[in-house]
Design goal:
Alpha-D-Glucose-1,6-Bisphosphate, Chain A, domain 4, 28% helix, 3 helices, single chain, 47% strand, alpha+beta, globular
Amino acid sequence: MQKEIRLEFSQNVDEIYAAYTNVDFIKLKMEALGARKVEVEIIEEGHETTIKIIREVQVEAPGTLKKFVNVWNKMTQIEKWTGEKGGPYYGEMNIEIANAPVIVNSTMQLDNTDTGCAVETLTSIRSSIPFLGRILDNFMGEMTEKSIEEEFHFISENV
């Protein structure tokens, strides 16, 4: 399954990128959105920034998926961003959920607009379950879309 999302910020591209790559801001954002046990590590090498976020996220899975998705799930998110001041910035993100047979991969582009900046995200969700995989993919797609929108609102209001 693939999801495309475009969100527009009133802030400029460098302000948003600074928030995307700030340990304290990321931790605050994750906790504000309900995550617990949040750990954030950022490594900058040249024009590449790698962000590793480990957190536990609460999930209310439908009955058919409860044996594949726990109430609290440990997620490991790795983002790699490239770009220079003034944008555009390009990102790749991979999310693995402990003990869940699903992988989330995204590409992102953060660029200027006439009124601020926008982030375009293309997310791919794959499950390794033969029969319930499509249900799990759809469920994770809805969760991912909701999470991206919640993060957008938090960033918009706090940058």
